[in-house]
Amino acid sequence: MANKTINPMLKMALEMGPIVLFFIGYLKLKDSSFNIAGTDYQGFIVVTAAFIPLMVLSSGILWKLTGHLSKMQIATLVLVTVFGSLSVWFNDDRFFKMKPTMIYTLFGGILGFGLLRGKSYLKVVMEEVLPMRQEGWMILTKRLCGFFLGLAVLNEVIWRTQSTENWVYFKTFGLTAAVFVFFISQSGLFQKYGEEGEDAPDTAD
């Protein structure tokens, strides 16, 4: 299926909608408990159970409309399904809280493996939307690898030391803001190594 372009706002809604609904659902049900088939489930587990099919549905719609899902989106969907299902099955929120750790460790590990081979796997998935010279890709990949692994460690610290509510706020807003700030902070790198600036000095930072 050929890739198709869709309205950016619709794309953002499909990507961020499930996360926003998870947050709203948690706020409404965080103090509730539900007895299902003789087992008591806290609101967090119930919201997690609803989040999984919502993620599958939104990803399916996005694939149907665009004809494409990135490797990152597929990996995230798989890990959400696996760790979310484990939390529901064992009635244990720790599995779902570990999910960001696994995601960022996986992404950081893949980028690190590529760096050991002298390659930028980040370039493979982002080159079309962010034209940049090879030197720039290697620097950005090193930074993003360290950033992802740092987020994995931070998530472990937060969910193990903070309340569930604090973790939900961290996951919904903290992680999203951190990624946004990271890429904004790389604007100098993009300007220096962008393909439009072939005359820029060719030195690493």
In short:
This protein is mainly alpha-helical. It is 74% helix and 4% strand.
Describe the structure.
- By secondary structure, this protein is mainly α.
- The protein folds into two domains: 1-91; 93-197, no CATH class.
- 74% of the residues lie in helices and 4% in strands.
- The chain has eight helices and two strands.
- A two-stranded antiparallel ribbon has the order 1-2.
- β1 and β2 form a beta hairpin.
- Residues 197-205 have low confidence and may be disordered.
Descriptive terms for the model:
membrane, two-stranded antiparallel sheet, 8 helices, mainly alpha, Inner membrane-spanning protein YciB
The pLDDT mean sits at 89
- Structurally, how many domains make up the residues? 2
What's the total number of strands? 2
Q: Report the C-alpha radius of gyration, rounded.
A: 19 Å
Main sheet: strand order:
1-2
How far do the termini sit from each other? 41 Å
Give the biggest sheet. 2 strands, antiparallel
Structural class: mainly alpha
- The coarse overall form would be globular
Strand residue percentage: under 5%
Helical stretch tally: 8
Low-pLDDT parts are 197-205
| SSE succession | HEEHHHHHHH
Q: Which range best describes the helical content: under 10%, 10-25%, 25-40%, 40-55%, 55-70% or over 70%?
A: over 70%
